[in-house]
Amino acid sequence: MSSEAEEDLENVDPVLHQCLKKVFEKQVRVVESNPKDSWAWLRLANLALKTGPDNEAVEVFEDTVLHAKDSYLGWFLLGNLMGRLQMWSKAESAYRKAIQLERDDAALWINLGGVFKVQGRFSAALRALLRAVELNPEHTTAWLDLASVYSELGDNVGCRAALERACDTDPLSVKEYIKAIEEQSSNASDCSGS
Questions:
Q1: Contact by Cβ (8 Å): 116, 143
Q2: Which of 64, 82, 102 is the last residue in one of the domains?
Q3: For residues 137 and 143, what is the distance between their CA atoms, to the nearest angstrom?
């Protein structure tokens, strides 16, 4: 679980924590009664992150998705949840199931590419991200992630081309991205110089 979520939970009193669990249980029933309700899935995923580090809520969320079977949104949100918890193989599995149900959602391919990237599986990340930009050539995040993967693979030409495409779609995002990279690079050199 992310340190932010853990800090939030440490500051929640036990009564409120029990209340969150009860709301979560009710939301599970709402999703089970109407698995096509997108907002219900989003509320359930959000509650799963907030209910506690014991991962009981995560297991219930996973069981709910398994029960609904054909909800690509449920699988997508499960992948996001597992990614937030750094459970990479479960995140990958959930995204793959979501893609089986909805092959043309660029966000699924971007997130799958992100999982591969975190795992250092850059060739797989490249394939997933290329599929994402094929589906949505205007998706700036996909192009930025693609530039990062090309950089990891040592393909400067591909990296530059992806950055140029990202700049074409959203110049402000690219400037912020480059600024963040420069700051990371500066902080890394500050740390190594001390």
A1: no
A2: 102
A3: 8
